[in-house]
Amino acid sequence: MRLVVDLNKCQGYAQCAFLAPDVFAMHGEESLIYNPRAEEEQRERVARAVAACPVQAITADGPDGSGGPATGSAREASDGR
Asked: Cα–chain-centroid distance for residue 48?
């Protein structure tokens, strides 16, 4: 799964780092570091992290870069499904 974080939008709330610590981490108080190629095992945690971002700075695409299931999972998690 491919992740993109708009670091211009990111405000350092760290919700993603709390929900998916194997993928996202804070470096200092405001700088986010992340693995742009998250493992498929992290799909559910990443979907929750995407949904929890208060400024919607995270985009997740399917394993082939198609915008597939990971994006849909994030929407479902934010809708409470």
From this structure: 7
CATH label of the domain that carries residue 33:
3.30.70.20
pLDDT tens, position by position, 3-21: 999 999 999 999 999 999 9
Q: Are 70 and 60 in contact (CB under 8 A)?
A: yes
> Dihedral of the CA atoms 15, 44, 20, 37 (nearest 10)?
-120
Number of domains in the chain: 1
Which residue is listed with tokens 């974080």? 5
First to last CA, the chain: 21
Report the alpha-carbon distance of residue 1 to residue 26 in Å, rounded.
21
Q: Write out the residue range of the structural domain in which residue 45 sits.
A: 2-79
φ, ψ (nearest 5 deg) of residue 62: -65, 175
